[in-house]
Design goal:
There is one protein chain. By secondary structure, the chain is mainly alpha-helical. It contains four helices and no strands. The longest helix is centred in the C-terminal third of the chain and has 15 residues. Bound molecules: iron/sulfur cluster (SF4). Iron/sulfur cluster binds next to α2 and α3.
Length: about 110
């Protein structure tokens, strides 16, 4: 298994991250800045964290997919540049788009 560094914000979580290929975390930009920004207080701004995710993190896609697949671990905070609510919405949109559409048969 590739050694990896768990980012500071993951270390703040109350449970261990799911052990699998987490090599992408070595490239996480959030390891270089204040991890508190990824868990703002209620009503606090998510913009500083999102700005880092969206503008300078090359593993944003991997991070987002990890969060979507591991909700128990990634229930809170900013992951892949998205808040909990945004991830929930994205998951619902994906589920809706993968639901087979009922075709209307013209009579
Ligand atoms: S996308 Fe954001 S939260 Fe995810 S690893 Fe990159 S900087 Fe960290």
């Amino acid at each position: 298994m590739t050694p990896y560094t768990v980012s500071p914000y993951l270390r703040m979580l109350p449970i261990e991250p799911v052990r699998e290929d987490l090599a992408w975390m070595d490239l996480a930009r959030c390891t270089e800045v204040d991890p508190e920004a990824w868990f703002p207080e209620k009503g606090g701004s998510t913009r500083p964290a999102k700005r880092v995710c969206l503008l300078s993190c090359e593993v944003r896609a991997e991070c987002l997919e990890y969060a979507l697949e591991h909700e128990a671990v990634a229930a809170y905070g900013i992951w892949g540049g998205m808040s909990e609510r945004e991830r929930r919405r994205l998951k619902q949109q994906r589920a809706a788009s993968s639901t087979p559409q009922v075709q209307r048969i013209a009579s």
